[in-house]
């Protein structure tokens, strides 16, 4: 149940449930790891978000083939599914567990985009899913996570 | 099926199945992302590996609470389970899919250790699991992945 | 990798890739467990299937609340996702692994329906997902599995 | 979150946390699906349980090869991991989600045994795992689930 995001008391200016991409990007980029990932918000809708990530050399899993590390893709699945809940919660919430499927290698230098959608929202727990695409629109990874929505009201 | 590691043709000097920690650390740290994670090999045994990771400020998910991002923990579960296979394969192999469970937050500044073990080895696919602990030995995350062992013989 | 279905040599009359609901139902109901589940095929499309299942008293997890056992829901997720591949493969294939999320209890006496869709098809492995609904159309479970498509060509 | 078991008010005679195999078997076999699976309790320990299941013809996935259906194995993983918590909770609790890995086919006529162990216990949620073996002691499936321990105190 890591990935705990800012709470109301810590960020008195947070705006509550929101679909404003600028505000969501501001919230997301408060996280140093999100900033390191070059995260940008492309769109926010009801139970849905689309994010972009800027490739960096440290993402590489191996020096020869140059593929992006699976851990980066898992990170993107996790946080994108998590923030698909922002239109209801106005913040990220702790991840309880996650499954990731890897479909194809993401090549050296490829920026990535990801779409997250809520599968089922509950006041205690929610399931959301995400799909990650490379620069040519090919599906490189997908998955789903369980998120602790109850912590958003604390 | 990302996370593809070096192949025989790319690394003619790789040594094949090994339990030599120095050699395994050399192989692992060829990956820029592994190096960025401050990875060290603590021990290697039959179907088993123990790794250490050095905290860095970019791991932080949120600037207030300072917890390590779940994506970092997912990465550690993935690669530790993968490299539990090194005593049989002598290298990392592509991850097919993964499940991660988050048990407690990893605090700011905490280095992490992880133990990986093979659940079942097959010539095409193998399942391995990993547990991640913080500096006080508390379990912060665990999980299991499916690995494409067939690619190790290519 | 259980759930291995009939092979060509065992069933010389199988028809190959098909979207004919009657033929698919015939294939599915060759399995004694599928018959026990009261399985019917509602529709078959490209990379998609919709199935129905008839409640029976043995499904009950507990005698008081009367809920359907999670194992029945897991079974339905598994086989529905698997058979979403029938438009490409003409048969079921072994499941490699599966994740199931439980969203709400399915009540005593509730027949169930399930929709399966292919997430990504590959010649060796494919990922497909399924959603299970109760008689009022409420989502009771969902999940995804990895399927060994290579075995369909044997 | 199905698989909800008896509650205190419904079963005033339940005994609370227990490691008595006879009592645990009595509780488990109150469930019609558990009885249908021919479930017996082999042993109960702290955070651990061992169960046995009696093969029946309806388990078969296909009439030719005769393998046991993956849904049966998923059911066994789920309920065995769940009841590994009985030494703390004295009952089964709802499953939130589950992952199952299939390692080899379970043959026609094979009774099965399963060992469940707690990975991490929490007052709200717990993770437990299970391994399923055939009559020759071969690992046929394994997995882990997330269980809603908070419901045990209701």
From TrEMBL, chains A, B, C, D:
Biased composition (Basic and acidic residues): 1-13
Disordered: annotated span: 1-22
Record InterPro entries: ACOT13, HotDog_dom_sf, PAAI_dom, Thioestr_dom
Keywords: Hydrolase
A Pfam cross-reference name: 4HBT
Domain Thioesterase, chain residue ranges per copy: 66-141
NCBIfam families named in the record: unchar_dom_1
Family according to the record: Belongs to the thioesterase PaaI family.
Protein name: Domain 1-containing protein
Native source organism of the sequence: Actinoalloteichus caeruleus DSM 43889
């Amino acid at each position: 149940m890591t990935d705990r995001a800012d709470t109301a008391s810590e960020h008195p200016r947070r705006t509550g449930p929101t679909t404003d991409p600028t505000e969501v990007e501001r919230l997301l980029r408060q996280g140093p790891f999100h900033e390191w990932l070059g995260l940008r918000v492309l769109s926010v809708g009801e139970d849905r978000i689309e994010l972009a990530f800027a490739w960096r050399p440290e993402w590489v899993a191996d020096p020869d083939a140059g593929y992006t590390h699976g851990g980066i893709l898992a990170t993107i699945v996790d946080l994108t599914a998590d923030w698909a809940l922002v239109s209801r919660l106005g913040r990220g919430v702790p991840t309880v567990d996650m499954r990731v499927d890897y479909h194809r290698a993401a090549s050296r230098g490829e920026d990535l985009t990801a779409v997250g959608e809520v599968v089922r929202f509950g006041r205690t727990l929610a399931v959301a899913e995400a799909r990650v695409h490379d620069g040519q629109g090919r599906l490189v990874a997908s998955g789903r996570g369980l998120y602790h929505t109850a912590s958003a009201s604390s």
